[in-house]
What we know:
Elements (H helix, E strand, L loop, with lengths): L8 E4 L1 H5 L8 H13 L4 E6 L12 H7 L7 E5 L3 H9 L4 E7 L2 H8 L3 H17 L3 E7 L12 H14 L3 E6 L6 H12 L7 E5 L6 H9 L5 E4 L19 H10 L8 H14 L7 H7 L1
Parallel strand pairs: 1-2, 1-8, 2-3, 3-4, 4-5, 5-6, 6-7, 7-8
Amino acid sequence: MVSNDNHVSLFEVGARDGLQNEVAVPTAAKVQLINALAHAGVKRIEAASFVSPKWVPQMADSAQVLRDIERLAGVRYSALTPNITGYQLALSAHADEVAIFGSASQSFSQRNINCSIEASIERFIPLIELAKSQGVKVRGYVSCTLGCPYEGKIALSEVARVSAILYNLGCYEISLGDTIGIGTAHDARNMVQAVSEQVPIAQLALHFHDTYGQALANILACLDTGVRVFDSSVAGLGGCPYAKGASGNLATEDLVYMLHGLGLKTGIDLEQLAQAGHAISRHLSKKSGSKVANALLG
Ligand code: HMG
Ligand code: MG
């Protein structure tokens, strides 16, 4: 299926997927980053994560972050929530929507959220039901869609099965994660095609980490399946604490540059985005992980 839609929706995960795996930065720096992203035209920002602070201490100040940010009209500020406790904390801090995160790999599910795939689904059901009753949108992540750090290749049927379960439970969008950034273009495309037999393509998002430098190529290879939602991380921040060696998501600046070059619209000001990435990289005392930002800003 070829989509004629030339608008692409970017879901920015730098402040969560990125910063959860960096040395802890001050709350004020997170707030500054999120505000700068919104001013650059980013409309969907994952700003926080209400997980156990024992598991991910970098996200322990999530409630404060959500309280301190400027709320720009038309921008949705989202939070990651593994269970009802997290959901309630997210709502108290006025998250606009939440995201649950399951996995296509049993081993990764166990390491990441301390339970099997089946147990995680049982845990998500009351969260989704409560969210529905309160009119809160729930996004669903599926990790390890192109490979698992513990199990290697994951069957496409399993990726499609877990995706369909989360979608049928009520997630409005399913984000397919290449958590360790190992996939290549052919596999990425096959994966999207397999999942799209169970979940409408308009409800799919791609969440590719860039560990092996394949994320842009993978997105390019998937564009003509019709997918129009991509997760990315400003300055290529981050990785995954339960996937050793995984680098950050594809840098948002690099993705925006490619999409604009293809004539697709993101609504994002690339220069301002690159400035936001440089500011947070300075806080982390590291070079931005975006080639485009480094080229633009020198
Ligand atoms: P557990 O130890 O099995 O849970 O952890 P528990 O229910 O037994 O609770 C243990 C303690 O945590 C208790 O406190 C709870 O109150 C507390 P204690 O009695 O010991 O003082 N607790 C919480 N505290 C704050 N917020 C909460 C919460 N829940 C329980 N929501 C649990 C299970 C899911 C909580 C844990 O495993 C966890 O927090 N895991 C999160 C791991 C994580 O954040 N990973 C990174 C995000 S996933 C990712 O990056 C992949 C993604 O980007 C997609 C991709 O790349 O593919 C999304
Ligand atoms: Mg991720």
